[in-house]
Amino acid sequence: MYAQGRGVPEDDVEAVRWYRMSCAKDAVTGCEHLANAYESGHGVAKDAEAARIARERGRCLFEQLLQHDAGVCPALP
After folding, report:
1. In this structure, are residues 13 and 34 in contact, taking their beta carbons and an 8 Å threshold?
2. In a domain, 26, yes or no
3. Does residue 52 fall inside a structural domain?
4. For position 68, what pLDDT does the model report?
5. Sign of the alpha-carbon torsion through 56, 57, 58, 59
6. Range of 53's domain?
7. What is the pTM for the complete model shown?
């Protein structure tokens, strides 16, 4: 909502805050959006390593969903 200004003022920094919270709470799409933000520098400083970690966490969470596995995925930086 914040990234596109749907119903709220557009705010990339606030969008990243929500992406980080959702990724930390195991939302695959939140991790993907967070990785994209780190890669593009929208709402946060560009950080290739943080993008890699967020994307890796999202992939791990997705694999857990497919396999009904409760393994441990990488923590966010």
Report:
1. no
2. yes
3. yes
4. 78
5. positive
6. 12-67
7. 0.88
Q: Report if residue 5 sits inside a domain.
A: no
Question: Is there a contact between 16 and 34 (Cβ–Cβ < 8 Å)?
Answer: yes
- Please report whether residue 18 resides in a domain: yes
H or E element that contains 34: helix 28-40
Closest to 37 (Cα-Cα) out of 13, 60, 56? 13
pLDDT in tens, the chain (77 residues): 999 899 999 999 999 999 999 999 999 999 999 999 999 999 999 999 999 999 999 999 999 988 877 778 888 87
Structural domains counted in the chain:
1
* Residue among 18, 10, 20, 16 nearest 53 (CA): 20
